[in-house]
Amino acid sequence: MDSALQSINYNFDVEIDRTNSSSNKWDKYRDQDILPMWVADCDFKSPPSVMKALHERIAHGVFGYTHASERLTNLFIARMADKYNWHVEPEWVVYLPGSVCGLNLAARALTESGQTIISPSPVYPPLISSAKFANKPLIKAPVVLKNGRWLPDHETAGKLLTNQSGLLLVCNPLNPGGTVYRREELEATLSFVEKYNLFVCSDEIHCDLILDKHLTHIPFASLNKSAAERCITLMSPSKTFNIAGLGVSVAIIPNNELRQRFIKVKRGIVPNVNVLAFTAAEAAYAYGEGWLQAQVRYLANHRDLLKEEINALPGTTLEHIEATYLAWIDCSELPVNNPHQFFEQSGVGLSPGIDFGNRAFVRLNFGCTRKTLEYALNRMKHAVFAL
């Protein structure tokens, strides 16, 4: 692999035509004049190191059953130590073909018959649906706005719990909302789960997309031994390096008993990660950091533009986004019954807030070129001012 790839001047303004590429994001509005700003994948080319590694692996010509290389696991472990001061043992790592299946496996592995799953709300829909698929009751624990940040309301959540509660789902950074939880906030969550004797599944797949330089992601399981022993952590290079379609994620499970339960539920149902996904992940972790930092700077500039423009519109509000490329826009003051439908009819395809738990909101994916973002904002402004 050419180390010079790390010093390339990356240009995220290049428009990549994703039509006719079997893209879920772009095919949703095929043959319609609607900009797709919904599902969470970016319109950027993946790091050159990833594409180079894939070309080389394809040239080999044989694509049999595979497993993760020792180098990939070592790269991941080193990344956890360097970025998060978290010491991860190799045996804690379980590879998955996606983080959503990890949520559903955790919901099954960490709850027993009659036990409840507690999910933040609003939140990314697969957290909510994991209880349904596991045939477990769901408690929606409110996420509330405090001093411009979306935070869990543990006091209210505690009143909702039953003696049969079993699993708390955590999303850090929060999707949607973009909150990066501080240590004291995570410690408050740990106190909550210790009080009610809960296991934790912490979805941390956006942890590399921190837009504010002064903030650092803290894995829940890294707090102390109590947190580690009750937690399954989900991470992935998919959002970080825009390789979601290749399908590779990681479950980190320090507790051996929980890990064996997780693996048992997975066996025979969830397929292994494929060879090209492993190849991409290894190249991304080995050589993609320069690309990642350039992407984060680009997205932070998008975030700043969005915050300014959305808050200048009558009837819409956007709180500060600390992480992710997903804007959670409050449309409760807009004189429309369905903000998602309103903007869609105006040529901007957003994610409906009802899918996350609040129909007064929409989620906007700003993982796109500046030109596309400005085009979408102009359409939104035109629609609002025409009311």
TrEMBL record:
Pfam families: Aminotran_1_2
Keywords: Lyase, Pyridoxal phosphate
Recorded GO MF terms: cysteine-S-conjugate beta-lyase activity; pyridoxal phosphate binding
Keyword Lyase: yes
EC number(s) recorded for this UniProt protein: 4.4.1.13
InterPro entries: Aminotransferase_I/II_large, C-S_lyase_PatB-like, Class-II_PLP-Dep_Aminotrans, PyrdxlP-dep_Trfase, PyrdxlP-dep_Trfase_major, PyrdxlP-dep_Trfase_small
Requisite cofactors: pyridoxal 5'-phosphate
UniProt cross-references to Gene3D superfamilies, sorted A to Z: Aspartate Aminotransferase, domain 1, Type I PLP-dependent aspartate aminotransferase-like (Major domain)
Domain of life of the organism encoding this protein: Bacteria
CDD domains on file: AAT_like
NCBIfam families listed in its UniProt record: C_S_lyase_PatB (TIGR04350)
Sequence similarity: Belongs to the class-II pyridoxal-phosphate-dependent aminotransferase family. MalY/PatB cystathionine beta-lyase subfamily.
Protein name per Swiss-Prot or TrEMBL: cysteine-S-conjugate beta-lyase
